[in-house]
Amino acid sequence: MISPSYFFDLSDFPHAAIFDSILEPWLVIAHIQNYLLSLPLGKIEGKISPQAYLINPEYITIEPGTIVEPGAYIQGPCWIGKNCHVRHGAYIRGNLITGDGCVIGHDTEIKNVLFLNHVHAAHFAYVGDSILGNRVNLGAGTKCANLKLNQQLISLHIEGKRIPTQLKKLGAIIGDGSQIGCNAVLNPGTLVGKEVLCHPCLNIGGMIPTRSIVKSPSNLVISSY
User: Fold this and answer.
1) CA 219 to CA 190: how far, in whole Å?
2) Is 99 left (phi over 0), alpha (psi -120 to 50) or beta?
3) Which of 16, 144, 155, 215 could tie 171 with a disulfide, CB 3.0–4.6 Å?
């Protein structure tokens, strides 16, 4: 069993309570909406462009210091933390929770996702049904795919074992400080430990151990640093 602490330091995350009693981090994915609806939503602060699109604003909270640029689309329920930046053309499809200091950039699409603090998905990314840890950076064009081609339930592959999740949609779990190179594709159910470096233009899947460098297709070559 791999606990949330393998991937994340939750000590400074304002929504650490979502992990209470959760033994395996991917189980959080199914609880994002219910957790959001338990919060006092509907308080919109920060600098919000009048040309931004806020859908169901009574289910949206945006904390002070956050900038939402013209043309951004935000659908509730969602909670966006302090000092974040939602750029022009960002597409937030609901069930998003972010910590503080996050960036959701131009043409980035987000759906049913948990961002810890200082996550950057700044350019042309897709992130669905995923959890990104503190200081994770997605290079331009990164895709966190969440649905298998055959649309079957997703299983995880950890240390030679197959672990069923009972989830039809599950993207990536990416640990604190990991960096994903431009145009990388993370297949459904990819697990990435802390401080992993993934080279650009790779097809990544399975379990990537903490402090690894992924530098070949399908993670055939992984070296520690």
Assistant:
1) 11
2) beta
3) 144
Residue 159: what residue type? E
Tell me which residues of the chain have a pLDDT lower than 70. Answer: 1, 217-225
At residue 221, the pLDDT reads 47
CB contact at 8 A, 70 and 49: yes
Distance of CA 129 to the CA centre of its chain: 7
- Write a three-state SS string for 65-117: CCEECCCCEEECCEEECCCCEECCCCEECCCEEECCCCEEEECCEEEEEEECC
The rounded distance, in Å, linking the Cα atoms of 144 and 47 is 29
Quick one: pLDDT at residue 224?
A: 58
* Whole-number Å distance between alpha carbons of 166 and 115: 22
3-state helix, strand and coil shares in percent for the chain, rounded to the nearest 5? 10, 40, 50
Helix/strand/coil for 28: helix
Residue bearing tokens 């697990």: 191
This prediction has a pTM of: 0.95
What element of type H or E holds 4?
A: helix 4-7
Q: Rounded to whole angstroms, how far apart are CA atoms 148 and 168?
A: 8
CB 41 within 8 A of CB 77: yes
Contact call for residues 50 and 68 (beta carbons, < 8 A): no
